[in-house]
């Protein structure tokens, strides 16, 4: 699975007088990132399918009817048996905040987020810029680089401004 960052733009800005009481400035960053995920014969396309699934507004999740009853079942001998199934499972739909959008016409994912300007976000942005320029990450990780890039983008979303 190959992930290519086709466009990465960062705009560093400051909101003046954001905090009440003290006229302090609030720095923030607007990140625009377009990326593609190409299939690989050896690894398959599971990264693409996973990234595309995150663009959907609603997610199907597995729920349990009663946490205490489920915990008792799990601690019983039946809970450790592969042949036994808990009968209180059900499915539900939950709304999610999509980290990126999929633009089908261009087969491209688009990430746009207003994030806080702080040390962790700047470090992640530097790694994304390095990856865009060199096609690999500067550090040694123990997983696929495409998954690390997607994880970095998810982390940036958590630093919303």
Discrete helix count: 4
Percent helix, as a range, is 25-40%
**Count of strand segments:** 6
Biggest β-sheet: strands ordered side by side in the sheet:
1-2-6-5
Mean pLDDT: 85
Q: Cα distance, first to last residue?
A: 32 Å
What is the alpha-carbon Rg in Å?
Answer: 21 Å
Q: Return the string of H and E elements.
A: EEHEHEEEHH
What fraction of the residues are assigned to beta strands by DSSP?
A: 25-35%
Find the structural class using helix and strand composition: alpha+beta
**Overall shape:** extended
Major beta sheet summary:
4 strands, antiparallel
Uncertain residue segments: none
List the helices and strands and how they pair.
Layout: E1 2-15, E2 26-38, H1 46-53, E3 58-64, H2 67-75, E4 89-95, E5 101-103, E6 108-116, H3 119-134, H4 145-158
Antiparallel strand pairs: 1-2, 2-6, 3-4, 5-6
Report what the structure shows.
It is a single chain. A hairpin with a 4-residue loop joins strand 5 and strand 6. It is extended, with a radius of gyration of 21 Å. The model has no long low-confidence stretch (mean pLDDT 85). The protein is α+β, with helices and mostly antiparallel strands. The protein contains 4 helices and 6 strands. A 4-stranded antiparallel sheet has the order 1-2-6-5. It has a two-stranded antiparallel sheet with strand order 3-4. Helix content is 29%, strand content 33%.
């Amino acid at each position: 699975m190959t992930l290519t960052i086709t466009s990465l733009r960062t705009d560093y800005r400051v909101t003046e007088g954001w905090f009440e009481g003290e006229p302090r400035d609030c720095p923030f960053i607007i990140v625009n990132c377009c990326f593609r995920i190409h299939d690989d014969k050896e690894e398959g396309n599971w990264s693409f399918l996973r990234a595309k699934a995150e663009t959907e507004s609603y997610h199907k999740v597995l729920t349990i009817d009663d946490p205490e009853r489920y915990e008792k079942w799990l601690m019983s001998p039946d809970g450790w048996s592969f042949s036994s199934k808990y009968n209180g499972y059900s499915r539900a739909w939950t709304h999610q905040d999509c980290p990126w959008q999929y633009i089908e016409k261009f087969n491209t994912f688009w990430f746009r987020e207003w994030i806080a300007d702080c040390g962790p976000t700047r470090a992640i942005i530097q790694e994304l810029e390095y990856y865009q320029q060199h096609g690999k990450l500067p550090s040694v990780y123990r997983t696929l680089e495409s998954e690390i890039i997607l994880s970095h983008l998810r982390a940036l979303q958590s630093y919303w401004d």
